[in-house]
Design a protein that fits this description.
May function both as a monomer and a homodimer. The protein is mostly helical and about 450 residues long. The protein has helices at about 15-35, 40, 65-70, 85-90, 100-105, 170-180, 190-195, 200-205, 210-225, 235-240, 245-265, 280-290, 290-315, 325-345, 360-380, 385-405, 420-454, and strands at about 45, 95, 150-155, 270, 275-280. It has a three-stranded antiparallel β-sheet. Strands 4-5 form a two-stranded antiparallel sheet. The longest helix is centred in the last third of the chain and has 34 residues, at about 420-454. The structure holds flavin-adenine dinucleotide (FAD).
Length: about 450
């Protein structure tokens, strides 16, 4: 079996970039059909507005609040409305609201409510207890103190693309996300070169942080005023070599997600001179072309998420994708079965059995899960609606993939049942990575063409 070891860089394993490119080319049409053309997979329920950033003060000018996003383009007031970051970051299309829990309880937990949600917007979903998380989850449970259970948002109407969200807001979020990779103070990669301890990020806060945040957030803001921004773990590839495989995988998942976001915003970029949307080659060159490790981490994520979906495959073959329209439900099932059958014939490209087994591995699992939950909570600190939507969806998608890979026994496939939101996130996350791989391929061709002509 030719499998990508989590230890390997994708390109040094037998499954090379081109193997994965071929696989992606084969699976892409079926995956796009599923995520773009079925109600079940193209609407996502999330609590987009109801939760405040748990790690720092949303009102602070330093953080990823909406104001940060609005003020990112220079001389914003002079720019036509349609080009402004606030406008670009807004959600499009109708939303359907999740029904109150009391309504769900009346109907009973397991029964689908067909046609109940937003028929006027062409959306209807299984209503289930998908707001509860259990201890195996890598996602962040919904905040039970808020009554809002979220909205259903059309993913097709809100493509992931350039929004103009930049500057201090996203920088602070990315910094905090990468700090989650520091599993202990000792393994913090830059403590020596910084000459001081890293600031207390979400990682240091731990899961009790929401309760304790009030006292700490001010300290964090103060600390960040006085300390230089943290260098990124990305620039410390060599130091990662000495780390155990689990930490490395954690880093790669995050970095690969970052690569995918960067790819999408460069591929679907707004040319502010012409007002046209299209690929921005310079954006790609600056962020990705010179950074083979970042692109490699994207391939790594493709292998990881696809493996999770393949592992889930047998328990999905008979799943009822209930949308309220029986013929569409059958069609969705047919499409998913087609993808799973096709994916099932591919070589196994990721071997999760190597993780959490040797050395300090087993003891790291809970830490790994908690840190990933912290990353998912950090999405509430993202100050642009569309970015937050896709950030939340993708962290939930990776969370679902990690749960399938590491929380379910390979021999107990019957219990591999995910919640609807997890399934939607998982498939759409693979579709995001898949689109990114295609875009990077196109960008590479553009660079080659440019070099030929120069
Ligand atoms: P950033 O992308 O902010 O990166 C900061 C630093 O991280 C870099 O200088 C580099 O040192 C390091 N780094 C970069 N890429 C990697 C990598 N792959 N692996 C490891 N390290 C890396 N903007 C949009 O236009 N549309 C969106 O949909 C969108 N979604 C976002 C979602 C989230 C969760 C976040 C936090 C931000 C999002 N943004 C989005 C903003 C976008 O990601 C950038 O932050 C912004 O474009 C500014 O880019 P930058 O050049 O400052 O570098």
């Amino acid at each position: 079996v030719c499998a990508i070891s989590p230890k390997a860089i994708v390109s040094d394993a037998c499954a090379s970039f081109s193997t994965l490119d071929d696989l992606n080319r084969d699976l892409k049409p079926a995956l796009s059909e599923i995520t773009q053309k079925t109600d079940f997979f193209s609407y996502y329920r999330l609590n987009l507005y109801g939760k405040e950033c748990p790690f720092w003060n949303d009102d602070s000018g330093l953080c990823g609040n909406r104001a940060c996003a609005v003020n990112t383009l220079e001389n914003e007031e002079d720019i036509p409305l349609v080009w402004r970051a606030k406008h670009l970051g807004q959600l499009e299309g109708p939303k359907a609201v999740h029904p109150e829990k009391s309504l769900q309880e009346k109907r009973g937990p397991a029964k689908p409510l067909q046609g109940e949600l937003g028929e006027d917007v062409g959306e209807s979903c299984v209503v289930e207890y998908d707001d509860e998380c259990d201890e195996r989850d890598y996602c962040m449970p919904e905040d039970k103190s808020t009554s809002a259970k979220g909205d259903y948002v059309s993913l097709v109407d809100n493509p992931e693309r350039f929004t103009g969200y930049s500057g201090v807001g996203p920088r602070q979020v990315w910094d905090a996300i990468y700090r989650e990779n520091c599993f202990s103070k000792d393994s913090f990669p830059h403590s020596a070169s910084l000459g001081s301890s890293p600031p207390a990020g979400p990682a240091a806060f731990g899961l009790k942080s929401v309760l304790e945040k009030k006292g700490r957030e001010q300290a964090l803001v103060e600390q960040q005023k006085t300390e230089p921004a943290l260098p990124f773990v990305a620039e410390t590839g060599l130091e990662l070599e000495g780390e155990c495989v689990e930490k490395r995988v954690f880093y790669r998942v995050i970095s690969g997600m970052h690569t995918s976001i960067s790819t999408h915003l460069c591929w679907d970029f707004l040319n502010q001179t012409t007002g046209e949307w299209g690929p921005n080659l310079q954006c790609y060159k600056d962020r990705l072309h010179q950074h083979a490790d970042r692109v490699s981490n994207l391939y790594f994520n493709y292998a990881l998420v696809l493996r999770a979906i393949t592992k889930l495959g047998p328990s999905l073959m008979d799943y009822t994708f209930c949308s309220g329209d029986p013929s569409q439900d059958r069609d969705t099932k047919y499409k998913v079965q087609g993808l799973l059958t096709q994916a099932g014939t591919a070589p196994r490209i990721f071997d999760e059995s190597l993780m959490f087994v040797n050395g300090e591995g087993p003891s790291l699992k809970e830490d790994f899960r908690n840190r990933f939950r912290n990353v998912s909570r950090l999405m509430d600190c993202v100050g642009c609606d569309k970015c937050r939507l896709w950030g939340k969806l993708q962290t939930a998608g990776y969370g679902a993939a990690l749960k399938v890979l590491f929380e379910f026994d390979n021999n107990a496939l019957a219990v591999l049942v995910l919640k609807r939101t997890e399934l939607v996130a998982l498939f759409n996350t693979l579709a995001r990575i898949s689109d990114s791989l295609t875009a990077i391929h196109e960008f590479r061709l553009m660079v080659e063409a440019e070099e030929l002509h120069s």
